[in-house]
């Protein structure tokens, strides 16, 4: 019986593989087009990733996703925005420093740019007499001068009152909570009434002795803890749009 001649195979890839390759190419082009027409809101993307931070980890400790530092619970702005804002804070700090030097208060008022924004820290003796919340005449003058600089910006401002851990118990201020809060409120009220700063930009808080910056065991430490912090806050992402 004669052997059947084996059929010759065609050279190259099978027909089905060519069809499959064409389909994959078309899908790739389709998704590239979709991506090119889309835009990503960086701030919202970072906020979404933040909500997953740590929850996707296999181990008990350590996040699986790393983000840049946050400011006021919002992701840091883009490099361009951060650079412009940092320059604004630096200029403002320089102008304020000149005012403090002219008023001979540079040793009693601290200026610092940090993750929250520009901090203006007053020792309580600059603004108030011991155990009181009425602004001193010297305080009114310095707040007026500082407010001129602050009015050049539209950034939000928070005023925070702090005390040491020595209890106070008077009819007007039953505890350090009332004293610290009233001091912050009085600063804000004066800025609204006399310095023409838009009230929507301002807020006041009192923290009593709950946020010390020095050890309350020493006289110097307690002196440092009795303070009023005025913070010109960094912009939130939506405010830059």
Q: What keywords describe this structure?
A:
elongated, alpha+beta, 7 helices, 241 residues, five-stranded mixed sheet, 60s Ribosomal Protein L30, Chain: A, two-stranded antiparallel sheet, 14% strand
Describe the structure.
It is a single chain. With 241 residues, the chain is an alpha+beta fold. It contains 7 helices and 7 strands. Helices cover 43% and strands 14% of the residues. The strands form 2 sheets. It has a 5-stranded mixed beta sheet with strand order 3-4-7-5-6. It has a two-stranded antiparallel sheet with strand order 1-2. A hairpin with a 3-residue loop joins β3 (109-113) and β4. It is elongated. It starts with 14 loop residues before the first helix and ends in an 8-residue tail after the last strand.
Structure described in brief:
The protein is α+β, with helices and mostly antiparallel strands and 241 residues long. The protein is built from seven helices and seven strands, in the order ααββαββααβαβαβ.
SSE blueprint:
Elements: H1 15-37, H2 42-52, E1 70-71, E2 74-75, H3 79-102, E3 109-113, E4 117-123, H4 124-127, H5 137-150, E5 157-162, H6 176-195, E6 202-206, H7 219-225, E7 227-233
Parallel strand pairs: 5-6
Antiparallel strand pairs: 1-2, 3-4, 4-7, 5-7
Helix pairs in contact: 3-5, 5-6
List unreliable stretches of 5+ residues: 54-80
Strand order of the largest sheet: 3-4-7-5-6
Strand-residue proportion: 5-15%
CATH architecture of the domain at 86-236: 2-Layer Sandwich
